[in-house]
Write the structure tokens for this entry.
Amino acid sequence: MTASLPDANALIDSLAATIAPAFDPDTLIVGIHTGGVWVAERLHALLRARHPVGQLDISFYRDDFSRIGLHPQVKPSSLPVDLEGRAILLVDDVLYTGRTIRAAMNELFDYGRPASIRLAVLIDRGGHELPVRPDYTGAALAVPAHRNINLSRLDDGHLTLSIA
């Protein structure tokens, strides 16, 4: 089923080209662990953003935390500059229900009050349960609810998409 998926690296290039005309280099690009950080790092380089990439691990902000518990791969969040009054480009690999984005925004607001938050996703697979829509999308793909879209990074840094 992987053959029908677009090339992740080409999607990032396309996503960057869509974002570039309105992008202010002073915008802080923040990726959500793990795939969102990989996409954010690529966008950062392509858009020539001024600040290092921020990274969020939203594990403690998830609305299902009490049911699923702590994920063994929890990583610290890292935001290299003050968020107060700053434009943020929040980046994730796959948008599905919107709950990850809601959790990420909750965490961002714990660090300060940004002037704006724009959302860029590599894949919007539909199935939104919350009123969350991306400002920028690499591709919209219809995927059955029982399947997952996964972004993986190979040893050479190449990103690949698969359906599980």
